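Full entry
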Amino acid sequence: MQELEISTPSCLVQQDGAVLVVTLNRPEAKNAFNPAMLLGMYRAWRRLDEDPVLRCAILTANGDTFCAGMDLKAGADGDQGASEEFMALMGTVPNLHWQALLRDNRPNKPLILAVEGYALAGGTEILQGTDIRVAADNAVFGVTEVARGLYPMAGSTVRLRRQIPYCLAAEMLLCGEHISARQALDWGLVNKLVAPGATLAAAREYAAKICANAPLAVAAVTRSLREHQECMAEDDAMLASDALAGPVFASADAKEGMRAFKEKRPAQFRGE
């Protein structure tokens, strides 16, 4: 893999062919968010959107904790160690931190999550901005802000109840307790459980499947997932979905896909 220049010490951004691999890299601090990490994630998601070679991204972490959320030790005395670059960019992109945490302006390409260990508070909040989620079978999740006198500002009060049953979302949000990987799977919060140490490999398998599909079709489906939310009337959502489908069916890739099916061979998609 090639490490990209947009990496920071707290967030490694690497490219592996058509896949962007984003790795949280503060294992000594349980990968708690700091300005350098947020800056790296922000840059990564914008690169994913802008680079036509990239087809999807994997978010993972180094160490035995995926992410413990905000760095409360730094927050207690107001010192976030913010770099001049981070603060300068915040002046022009005031929601930079929310973009980094996938609350705002999510990239229009699939995001795959690979979780090892604890994913608490912001660690479970950023999960909700991803599309396909792999977890180690000993992973632990939780939106624990209320237990610290805080509020989950990265979107959990809105997104969580749309992704799992309302009463389970209410339990997570109001009790602030940990849930096991098995509970997360049973509740529909993650897609798959694997042995510890195997999440990145499993995420790569999902990425390979996505990259083997037609780029225009994947982009249109991802855009529909992003834009056609539950709040839209079904008829309006269907009309908006049809508008995305038209160019896909008219593409050269659609003709190639049907031709390859007829000829019983793998399709050779060109994104055209």
In short: The two ends are 27 Å apart (CA to CA). The mean pLDDT is 92.
